[in-house]
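Per reviewer request, we include the raw input and output of the structure prediction for the construct analysed in the revised manuscript.
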Amino acid sequence: MILHKKVDHSKMRPEDAVLTPTYAARALTTTVPKYKIPEVEMLPRTAYNVVHDELMLDGNSRLNLATFVTTWMEPEARQLMAETFDKNMIDKDEYPQTAELEMRCVNILADLWHAPDAANTVGCSTIGSSEACMLGGMAMKWKWRERMKAKGKPDDRPNLVMGINVQICWDKFCRYWDIEPRQVPMEGDRFCLNAEEAMKLCDENTIGIVGIMGTTFTGEYEPVKEINDALDELNRKTGWEIPIHIDGASGGFIAPFIQTDLEWDFRLKWVKSINASGHKYGLVYPGVGWVVWRDREELPEDLIFYVNYLGGEMPTFAINFSRPGNQIVAQYYNFLRLGRDGYRRIQQSCQDVALYLSGEIAKLGPFELITDGSDIPVFCWKLKKETNFTLFDLAERIRDRGWLVPAYTMPKNREDLTVQRVVVKEGFSRDMADLLLNDIRRALEFYASHPGHKAKKREKGKGTFKHC
């Protein structure tokens, strides 16, 4: 949901309340109201042109290095998506093959993530990783509540342990489901969760620990195996059964292909559920996410609804209901089209570009890398010392060339640190990296030639965000 600034139409000039396309003389005889539905219809091409012209003011998605979301797909994938926009994926009786493709994708992911019995595991598609995280969190809460009831203990004070670097959906989850968030703050050069700090916050009311494979602030993997091993010892000593949920929104589609020996998934005993975003490094246009449980026992039956809907009884455990089936179709297309080798080549190419670009940025002089893209193809940097410009200035200046490269401050305990970040995705080539480098060099030359330029101060409440 996006909250827009309220428009006071009573104070608006008449000319600001209408659209006047340049081709109005040919296709329109009246102006078009902005905030009221028009009284009469217009030609399809005219309506298209009105909307198309306004959207030209948006940024170019291919130059958007802030977003993790896929901005390019093959023509064949686009065609399949266009052909299946009209299929509501929740109508499983009416569109049984779309439902079949969804389950195939779940099985494929379970296999990629080393589920003990991938062919018989359980999972589902979602509108994105935010919904998938909610489902994984709900399962942890319900399983914890079952354990507490079996012990005759109160179940009214659940908590969830995670780093403060989690995506905002986890803050929402805790608020919506009345769970105490126990967040480990950043300290010094540690920007994510580690085992030592996580164990300090655990108790018998802990429903689980969230581990992130690719934190959005820096692109780092959290040390999941280290957390699992420490948790195994803690659970053994206390008799608790605290699980781990892996938020693999980005890394869930990276590590299986280019870091195959890294243990982070169902190979680890206490990893019970994993989510990933198909519309990020799953290489599908938004929005599609996935959540998979280790086995059927980890999804409480209470969370499954059996709906008599449009001719058949249908089990559902997603939060959302109606949505297009075309993202599921596109995800299955990618699995067939690319295979392991295709995904490996694309993800490795993204990482190669990230390592090249981060290395070149480090050579420019005023910047110091915090990460270089060695985990997911995401890296960030800071200024070495105070200069006559800030990273906010730099972000604004290269935006004039179309580049969207965000600058932001870190959260609690490192709010003093401002960084700038690049996300390398398919479609961002080595050549485009060189174009970005040239524009950054031009910006640095400008600031060097204007020593009287005053560094832009961050406005209060701006520049800190949790990324999508």
